[in-house]
Each structure stands twice: as structure tokens, then as C-alpha cells.
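# nightly structure sweep
# worker-07 picked up a monomer target from the shared queue
# config: single-sequence mode, recycle default, output format = C-alpha cells
# input follows
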Amino acid sequence: MKKVLLVCAMVLIFGAIFAQEDGIKGLKKEIQELKKKVSENEKKIEATADSIEDSGVKSGVAFGNTTLGGYGELHMNQLSGKEDGTSSKREIDFHRFVLFVEHKFTDRIKLYSEFEIEHVIASKSDAGEVEIEQAFIDFEYINDHHVWGGLFLIPVGFLNETHEPPTFYGVERNPVEKNILPSTWWEAGAMFKGQITEELSYDFGIHSGLNVGSGDSYKIRSGRQKVSKASARAFASTGRITYRPMAGFDLSLALHFQQDLTQKTEVESVSAFMFNLNVSYQHKGFGIKALYAHWILDGDGPDAIGADTQSGFYLEPSYRINDNWGVFARYAMYNNAAGSNGGDSEKSQFNIGVNYWPHEKIVVKLDFEDQFYENDSGERRGINLGIGYQF
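# output follows
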């Protein structure tokens, strides 16, 4: 009897051991499968992040190795002239229709391009334009380090590189990133980009330059050549460092230099130096953006009219109420003749409004705008209404 009990006990013990071993093997198999899934998900996340970071195409539809994307925006302005009404702006305009095309030749060589139609019709009698804003080859020569060759957007400000309507507040783009940083601003040349650390990235480019002189009062926006049979007598360089120490916080400093802003078309050359500082912070729906840009033009021509210094800034707090609604306010000031001989040329603008996203890539915008000019000429006040999309 004792032997029978002993045998039964041994069977039970060894059965438990074998069952435990089977269980351990099962657990090990499950752990390996989980590790494999985690690794696959990490690769997918990294691939998606790289695609967004490296591409001018923020979204799109893939057809094999080619991806198509785009955006568009319709604006209506009901702004009354504050002085005598002569400067009123009451119009509706399909401002931009844009298509992006990205093509992957290999995992390390890609093409990015952007084709744009502004104001619907382009002809001698119409205000519209047909433009190519980006067309460059991206070579990833080592991991996380790229060189672009071709036509690309200059790495300054917030809006110059990312300006799809659902990504920013307000119907119209802010006046500082129009008149001081002349968005949309693109040039041709070579651009180096990469990650130094997880928090620190860089951009550095040598490229075609602006072309502006006394006939345009040296106003920076008037100098965009858009790489259309552009003068190449004086090239320019732009560099930027971006620091992202935590999710939601970005700090960047950009510097730009051009030896002769007039492209040697005037007797005296005018060198130009610009620095731009951006700060943005997002936390639990609350957001704030601050931008400052400052140009220094060295020459008797700009000095005589106060255009030797041109600068501007804006501050924009916002609050994303939920996935569909967000509100903002923005104060902006700029001056294209801020030098000692510039006179009363400072301009400021206040906007307050709301964005409604019925879908994450579609936005309806409404804002109130009030302009204040030191010389009281051209001031406007009223509302802007718009709708935009990206895909």
C-alpha cells in the first residue's frame, strides 16, 4: 500500500513539474511574441515619425512608392477702413490650392515637390499665380542626417515650413511672418538637416538669395525671387538650431546672411543679417507661441530711409477646448523702417477668434481683426471667415 501511495505521489509531483515546465515554455513563447509585436510597433512608429519629420508632405495617400497630398483654403474678409473707408477690404478668395507629390526611389533617396495655384486664375489680367514651392531630392547619407538638393523652404519662423490650414489659428497668416519673415519663402541650393541628439536638431543651407533695392524701399518681402530666372550674383546662407527638451516644448534660433541684398544691381552693395527666435509650448490644451525676427541691413541706401533695421514679433496664446474647438488671441507688431530715419512706420495688429475642426484635417475659422498704424493710413477693422483642409 505504501509503495502504491509513493508511486502516486511521484506521478503527481513529476506531473506538476512537467506541467510547470510546459507553462514556463508557454509563458516564454508568449513573451517572445509580445517582444516581437512591440518591436514591430516601434518600427512602425519610428517610420511614421521619420516620414512626418523629413517630408514636406504632412499627410497623403500612397500609390506604391508615390504619395499624393495637398491642402487648400478659402477666405472671406469683411474689413472696414478705419480712417475714411478707402482702405476697406471686402472680398472672397480661394487663396490657395496645393498638391504635394512625394516619391521614394530607395529607403534613403526621395523626391518631395509642391505645386500651388493662388487666387484661382493666373493670367495677365488676374492676380493669380502658378508656383512650384518645393522640388528637391532628399539624400539620407547616414541615419538621421540628410542633405537636400533643389528647391526648398527656408527654415525660419513657424509658418514657412508648416502652413496647412488645420495646423494654425486664424484665417490669414500673421503679418510678421509675411512682412519680416517673407512666408512663403523658398530658395534653391543645398540644405543639410539632422539630429544631433534626441533633443537637438540642426538645419544649414547655402542657397539663392533675395533681390531688393531702393525701388522697393528695401522691404524684405519684395525681394523674393521665387527661383524664377533668379539673379545668382549674391548667394545666401541660413542656419537653425532647434531644441526640444520635452514633449510640447520647442525652442529654435535661426540666422541668415546675404552679402548683397541688391544682387549687385546698385552702385553700393547692401549686406543683410537676420536672426529669428521662436518659442512654443503646448500642455493639456493650453498653447502659447512667441516669435521675434530682426533684420540688419548695412548700406547708405537703407539707412537713409530707416530700412536698415526691420523687425517684428507676435505673441499667441491659445486653448484647445476639445478635439473640435479651439480659441486664440494674437498681438503682432512689425516695422519695415525701424531705423532712426524711419519716421512713424510701426504697424500692429490684434486678432481674436475660434477654430472648429469637424475632422482633424478640415477646419473652419472665424476671427476679429483690428489694425493700428502709427501713420493712420490703411488701418482696417472687421472679421475674417475661412475654411481649409489638408490630405
